[in-house]
Amino acid sequence: MLFVxxxxxxxxxxxxxxxxxxxxxxFRFSISATSRQKRDIETxxxxxxxxxxxxxxxxxxxxxxxxxxxxxxxxxxGTLKSQVDECIKDGHCMVFDMDVKGALSIKRIxxxxxxxxxxxxxxxxxxxxxxxxRKTETEETLxxxxxxxxxxxxxxxxxxxxxxxxxxxxxxxEAKKIINKYYTKEQK
Length: 188
Ligand code: 5GP
Prior knowledge:
By secondary structure, the protein is of the alpha/beta class. Helices cover about 45% and strands about 20% of the residues.
């Protein structure tokens, strides 16, 4: 089963995904490739494969991605075929953290094997506040992230489930309930 978490930037989706991976250590995380700059708190090959634009474009040419998107105008993000294929071959569940378009591509490709979970922030205002407070963005990239919020929120009805992230603990519990409908410990 492929559990795909999506949400506008700043919704707390990555925190929820990390918590889920802690609670289901048998699950694998799909480590995406990206051409954006690494943040100080991130680790290469763990959070993302950080590669430059040229390398990314070579991988596109070689057909190495299941899906990829150019997000916020100039940064590539993509799911590597090798990651997903290996996981499916080994029979493990996989967790994805990706944008809304990427999630819908996964559904198109893997159909019922995939489950799309939208992490909904309490409000647009809270989301913008969170984005500002985490201080990872420049004025310009912050503007781009804010501009994309409405586009991503508009796709909510295309998701299988919505998890409200008003409170992290409750959101993780909601996500676990959904996962447990599709997953039993006998699986990996
Ligand atoms: P961030 O720069 O905040 O890490 O990520 C920006 C957006 O790209 C987030 O919505 C994140 O979930 C998404 N993203 C991360 N990896 C992938 C991927 O492999 N494919 C797609 N389509 N989006 C991704």
